[in-house]
Amino acid sequence: MFAMANLLSSLAWTLNILLDLYFWVIFIRAIMSWFNPNPYNPFVRTIYRLVDPVTYKISRIIPTRFGMVDLSPFVLMLIIVFLQRFLVKTLYDLAIRMG
User: Fold this and answer.
1) pLDDT value at position 66?
2) pTM above the 0.85 mark?
3) Residue-level pLDDT at 69
4) pLDDT of 55
5) How confident is the model at residue 64 (pLDDT cuts 50, 70, 90)?
6) Is 6:96 a contact under the CB 8 Å cutoff?
7) Percent with pLDDT over 90 in the chain
8) Which of 70, 34, 76, 39 has its CA nearest to residue 54?
9) Cβ partners under 8 Å of residue 64, min gap 6
């Protein structure tokens, strides 16, 4: 059982890091929307490709645009925080109970 506990603990740790990284990518995308970055820059294109499809799906489900302000990145950040608080914490707790 200790192997399964270690697996769950490692999975929770990895998921937490990936969610943290994605949170900061969303934050960078939100900051970039205040400026006019070069859309041909590979860094800018990568950020757009990582964030825009997900925020577009959120905008289709929930009306997040109020005038000129789009709140879908904020909603996505809230979803990430929820996943970190619920899913990652649950995986850690399961690992502790198994170990």
Assistant:
1) 85
2) yes
3) 86
4) 95
5) confident
6) no
7) 82
8) 76
9) 58, 70, 71, 72, 75
At 98, which amino acid appears?
A: M
Say if CB 91 and CB 6 are below 8 A apart.
no
Q: Is 66 exposed, middle or buried (0-12, 13-18, 19+ CB in 10 A)?
A: exposed
C-alpha span between 74 and 37 (Å, rounded): 20
Is the model's pLDDT at 99 over the cut of 80? no
Contact 19, 88 (CB under 8 A): yes
Backbone phi and psi for residue 70, each to the nearest 5 degrees, phi listed first: -110, 120
- State how far the Cα of 89 lies from the Cα of 87, in Å rounded to an integer: 5
The one-letter code for the residue type at 79 is I
Residue 58 host element (H or E): helix 42-61
